[in-house]
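Reviewers asked in the last cycle whether our approach scales beyond single polypeptides. To address this, we selected a multi-component target totalling 631 residues and predicted its structure end to end. The input consisted of the following lines:
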Amino acid sequence: MESSVVTPPPPAPPESKVPTKAVEGSATWSLVDRLGLAFCWFLGLLFCAIAAAIVIYLLIQGIKFLKLSELTTPAAAGFTEGESGGFSDAFVGTLILGVMGISMALPIGVAIAVWLVEYGRPRALARITEMTIEAIAGIPSIVLALFGTVIFTSTALGFLSRSNEGVVFGRSFFAASSMLALEALPLVVASTREGLNAIPRHVREASYAVGKTKAATTRRILLPTARPQIATGGMLGLGRIIGDTAIIVVLLGATQNFSPVEGAPFPLDYLRGAGTSLTNFVYEASPTGNLNQPQKAYAAAFVLLLMVLALNAATDLVHRRARKVGTWSH
Amino acid sequence: MESLAPDTAPSAPPPIRRLDPQDPTPAQEAVPTTATSFVAAKRSIAAPQFSIRRMEVDRVSIHYGAKAAVKGVSLPIRQGEVLALIGPSGCGKTTLLRSLNRLTELTAAARLSGSIRLDDVDIRLIEPTLLRRRVTMVFQQPNPFPMSVFDNIAYVLREQGSRRVRKKALEPQVHSALARAGLFEEVKDNLKHPALKLSGGQQQRLCIARALAAEPEVLLLDEPCSALDPQSTAVIEDLIVRLRDDVAVVIVTHNLQQAYRIADHVAFMYLGDLVEYNSATRLFNSPTQQRTAEYVSGAFG
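The resulting structure, written as C-alpha cells, was:
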C-alpha cells in the first residue's frame, strides 16, 4: 500500500535529443587519419573479396570438372581428354610427400624448438641456430632443390634413388620429401617456440618444485601445453610441402606417373623412384604446360584447395580443444 | 572437512627424525606489555602443540653477481608452526624462500654462502629432484597444469615422466592429497574437470594439494593469496594453519595482517638483512627493532 504522504515522482523528462551513450567518433580526427582509416577498411575488404573470389571460382570450376574417376586413374598418353586418364599418381604422390615430409620436419622442428627455448646454451650456439633457421626460411625453394640435387646425386646416397652404372639419378620421393621437410622446418620451429614461450615461467617451476626433471616437465607439461601451436606449425609446414612445385620438378623428376625402381621391395621401389604431385600436375595441365588440359588442371587445383582447407579446419579443431582446457591468468 | 583426522593423513609418512624435541623457543608468548600502533584482526589460532626443527638456515648470504640479495640470515624452520617472511619488495625474502629448495639455481647464477640444512644434511648434498620432493613450493599465481584435477596430482605421484602407475592405483593418494588441501569435497564428483577451469581459490588449493602429494617435510608458499579474493584467502589461511602439524610451513607475504593472523613466528627482512625474528605476537606488538616498528606500523614499505 502506498502512503499518500509520499509525493509522486516527477514526470519523466521529455525525450531528449542528447545521445544517451558517448561514442568516440572519427569526426574529430584529422583528414589524414580519416583517409587512413578508410584505406584500411578498403584494403581489408578487398583482401577478403580476392580470397573469396579465388575460393569460389575454384570451387565452381572444380565441381564442374572434377570426376571421381580422375582420382583413381593414372595419367596416360592419349589424344583426347577422355584418353589421357586422370591424376591419381599425382594425388597419391602429394599424399606421400606430405606424410614423409612432415614426419621428418615435425619431430626435428619440435626438438630444435625445445632445445632453443628450454636449454639454448651456450648462447652463441643458440643464436647461430636461430639465424640458420631464419636463413633456411628465406631460401627460395628452387635453391633448396638445386642444393638437394648436389646431395642426392652423391654415390653415398645412391640407395635413396635410382642409379644406373654408377650414375646416381638423385630424383626420388626420398630426395624430394627431405628437401620439402627442410622447407617446412622453420615453420614448425617458429610455431613450437611461440607455444613454449607462451607458457609462464612459474608453471615450469611448479613442476620442478615437486621434484620433476626438465625432461619430464618438457614431456608431460610443456609439449602437451604447446600442442595447439605445434599443430599449427605442422599444418603450415604441411601446407608448404603440398604447395611446393620447384622441388618436385627438380628432385622428384616430375614424371606424369610413378616410375618405381625395378627389383626393390614394395614400398621402397616407389619411394626410390620418380613421381609427380598435384602442384606439378596443375602446372603441366595448365595452358602453359605440356599437357594443356585446363579442365583437369582446375579439377586437380580443386583437390589441392580442399586439402588445404581441411588442414585449416583440423588446426582450428586442435585450438578449440585446447580452449576447453583453459589457460593461466597472467 | 576432516583433513587433520589421522585416517586421511598419508598412510606411510617418511621417517621423521625428531631433531630437537625440546626446542627451546616456545612459539606462544605472554601478552605483550608495550603496545605499538599495529592494529590487526585478533589472532584466533591456538598455539602450536609442538615444534620439530626441520630446516636450519645458517648464516646464508645469496649474491647475484656483485649484488647481495640476502645477507647472513639465520633462521630455524620448524614443523608444527608457520613461519612468515615479511618485508618490503626486493628485501630478499623470495630469494631466500626459493633457495630453500634450490629453485634459485634454475633461473639465475645465484651464489650461496653459509649453509641450509634439512634434517641436519646440507641441501647442497641432496640431489635437487629429491630435495624438491621433500621441500615443495606453491607460487604466487595459481598454476595448475593444463590437465584434469586428478592428473595434476597423479603427475606428482608418478616417477618423473612415466605413466606407469595406473590411475586406479593412485586414487587413494590423490583423494588424500585433495582432502588435506580441503578441496576434495568440492571436486570429488568430477575429478576429470580441467584444473584451469576451477576458480582461482580452488586452483591455489589444488596447487597446495599438488605440493602435499609429494609428502614433503617443508611447504614453501610464495605469496599464495596475493592473486585471490578475500574469501578464498580466508579459506587458504585456515588451511595453512591446519597444515602446520604435518609439515613445516614457510610463507612469504606482503600482507602484514595475514602474517599476524596465521604465523607463529615472523622474520622481518629489510634490504637482505634479517632485521628481526620473533614470535608473531611479539614482533607485531612489541618489536625490538626500530625498523620493524616502523614497518609494521606502516611508516614505510
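Chain A has a mean pLDDT of 90. We regard this as preliminary and will revisit it once experimental data from Aim 1 are available.
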